[in-house]
Write a structure and sequence with these properties.
262 residues; alpha+beta; Tetrahydropterin Synthase, Chain A; 3-stranded antiparallel beta sheet; 8 helices; 8 strands
């Protein structure tokens, strides 16, 4: 009799212990009774029916899904390699568990499909310079697509857009050419402005037009020879220093004589 009471007591204690289920903060549980969904368990102390109930626990904290580098084709048929990272969390544990099989794989496939679709609508330049635009478009599409799964996509970030070595070199050459073109335009605009100012000065001082022009010509001559000397493909020019000195002296003397006549 005493042994039966002891067995019954142990059974009752075991039942009570088995019926207690503690769910930690940041998790939720699902109760299946004989293979069928029964109810959800919130964080804290919960009671289930031992032997009949099975408890499945899922995290509701924010999770990180790293998308490995994948190839994608832009609108102008350029193949690039991109990778991204997805931040997401489960809002409805029941939907996340029963609505889709292998949730993480489904999310990864959805990210890749959406990412390739967005890049396919942009040319290479827009793709490289518009990561924020791609991120926002991905977030909008993924958040809408994952709603039936009880999942919330918090943010998506395209981490790297990688080009082939040949294409990278081609773009560098193109950027260098564009910089050179802008420099030439700036230089030309400066020259035009300089000519405009000289023309204005000559109109205002017609008496000194000839001396000014001779001075500018000599200045340009000296600067041209200086630039020629700096060039890697420069040529050696044999000049008669005496002739150059005489020419400059003559110009100075001519200016002084004209000043004396005045």
């Amino acid at each position: 009799m005493e042994s039966l009471i002891a067995i019954a007591t142990l059974a009752i204690i075991g039942y009570m212990i088995g019926s207690v289920k503690v769910i930690n903060q940041g998790y939720e549980g699902l109760v299946e009774r004989l293979g069928r969904y029964q109810r959800s368990l919130k964080p804290g102390l919960n009671f289930v029916v031992p032997l009949l109930d099975t408890v499945l626990v899922e995290t509701t904290r924010e999770q990180l899904l790293d998308i490995e580098p994948q190839s994608a084709i832009t609108r102008d048929n350029v193949t690039i390699t991109v990778n991204a990272v997805l931040y997401w969390k489960i809002l409805d544990v029941q939907k996340a568990y029963y609505a889709i099989e292998n949730l993480e794989e489904a999310l990864k496939s959805l990210v890749l499909t959406t990412l390739r679709s967005e890049i396919g609508q942009m040319d290479l330049r827009e793709t490289v310079s518009s990561r924020n635009k791609i991120n926002q478009a991905l977030l909008k599409e993924l958040d809408h697509a994952t709603e039936p799964w009880g999942v919330k996509v918090i943010r998506v970030e395209v981490q790297e857009i990688k080009l082939s070595a040949t294409l990278e070199k081609s773009l560098e050459t193109e950027r260098a050419a564009e910089s050179e073109r802008r420099a030439q335009i700036s230089k030309t605009e400066g020259m035009v402005e300089s000519i405009r100012r000289i023309s204005k000065a000559l109109k205002e001082d017609k008496d000194n037009t000839a001396p000014i022009l001779r001075y500018l010509l000599a200045q340009q001559y000296v600067e041209a020879n200086f630039e020629l000397g700096k060039s890697e493909n420069s040529k050696i020019l044999f000049m008669n220093p005496q002739s150059l000195t005489e020419a400059i002296s003559e110009m100075i003397g001519h200016d002084q004589n004209e000043g004396g006549v005045k």
